[in-house]
Amino acid sequence: MTELKIPNHIAIVLDGNGRWAKKQNRPRTSGHKEGAENVIRIAKSCKKFGVDTLTLYAFSTENWKRPASEVGFLMDLLIKFVNTKLKELIEEDCSLNFLGDLSKLPAKTKEACFDAIEKTKDNKSLVVNIALNYGGRDEIVHAFKEIIKKGYAIDDITEELISDNLYTRGQSDPDLLIRPGGEIRLSNFLIYQLAYTELYFTDVLWPDFTEDDLREAILAFTKRDRRYGGL
Ligand code: IPE
Ligand code: IPE
Ligand code: MG
Description:
This protein is α/β, with parallel strands linked by helices. The chain has one domain (9-134, 175-222): 3-Layer(aba) Sandwich (Undecaprenyl pyrophosphate synthetase), CATH 3.40.1180. It contains seven helices and six strands; from the N terminus they run E-H-H-E-H-E-H-E-H-H-E-E-H. It has helices spanning 17-23, 28-49, 68-91, 107-120, 136-149, 159-164, 211-222, and strands at 9-13, 53-60, 94-99, 126-134, 176-179, 198-201. Helix 1 crosses helix 2 (28-49) and helix 3 packs parallel to helix 4 (107-120). It is globular. One 3-methylbut-3-enyl trihydrogen diphosphate is lined by residues 14-19, 59, 63, 74, 181.
């Protein structure tokens, strides 16, 4: 793929875990487990293809509406993910980062996140952002509060200042958004950052999404004409 223009930053909505499990008469949680396994596979593929940043939507500010047992499972899964996969991510020279309001997470989940950030902070090959208790609208509200706290005046407010106060501060906007799982919507993901991102939707469910599916999405991206409003 080296001859093609590779997106620097890919964002993925990790959707379809529950339906994947249902298709096999298994509990929804087994879909989440398989979805977490797939994170490592796709992170490796992204690194192989030369992507710099991979942003994964793992738990939204709206996902708290789900049954407490599923929410609890997902919070524990994150801890297990960090405990079992951190070594592999370090070997792959990936740094882990989290986007969202982590303050609302259970203490143990939060600790696992901070531990992963600390242990991977110097890694350079791929940045993996996990959006956890993330909502695009919540992120904008948070950014406004930050800006006001810092004492900026009306004339200081610029698009750049807003970007600098989002959870993604310092990172480029995604070039390509992939949503597996068949839904054609953003579900409150990166609504500020996706202004000029190329969108790609597929019916493949996230646990089934392979390196070949990723290649296909990147190939579609390479055929897009990004005009940014110009000619
Ligand atoms: C995505 O899979 C994972 C989370 C939102 C945590 P879903 O759980 O939404 O799976 P479906 O959409 O019900 O199949
Ligand atoms: C979006 O998936 C959120 C994540 C994948 C984390 P949902 O399954 O929550 O989205 P909706 O409900 O179909 O919009
Ligand atoms: Mg879903």
